[in-house]
Design goal:
Elements: H1 3-29, H2 36-43, H3 47-50, H4 57-80, H5 89-107, H6 109-115, H7 120-126, H8 133-136, H9 138-147, H10 158-181, H11 187-206
Amino acid sequence: MTKEQRKVREREEMRNLILQNAALLIAEVGIEKLSIRKIAEKIEYSPGIIYHYFKGKEEIIENYLQQKYTDMLTELQSVQQEVQQELPPDTLLKRSLEKFIRMSLSTGVEYRNVMLNDTPAVLSYTAVLFRGAAQERKAIGMLCQGLFRFEAQKNREEAFVELTAQVIWSAAFGLIMRLLVEKDLPDDQVEALISCHLDSMVAIASR
């Protein structure tokens, strides 16, 4: 390994360390209270060091959100690839939504802190209810593609299917938020709620 290659690797390792600890802090205190000072304390470096790797808090948050969004799309795309297996549309929709729900629940407070943040920088990644979201948000776009496979949706206008996708996404989001808040529910109740939600969303897509 050359000296230049070593420097590049060390720089990436430091950036990853900063981002990993920023993610931990977001889960603990939320995006609003994230600061360069807190990140520096977490990694036991001076605040000035962080500015060698990021322009500021905003760039750290942007990189964090990009990674989270990429992770989510990767998971959802793995389900979408099952279209090639000619799965029935209701099965595909259920699998996609279930993966989204369980993935979001696994991140816990971190997911809640990000998704409930209303600052413009965060909303530029998390907003999904605007017109044209199917083109600008891949998650909504993939959901629309799945909906068009339902017989009831095939001849619908794209705008209507987009609205349906947004309603389905919002319903899943609401369930996720309540499950994160009511975290002491027994497992069988959680599973029953998720199952009922999936059946209800298929009913909406089929109407």
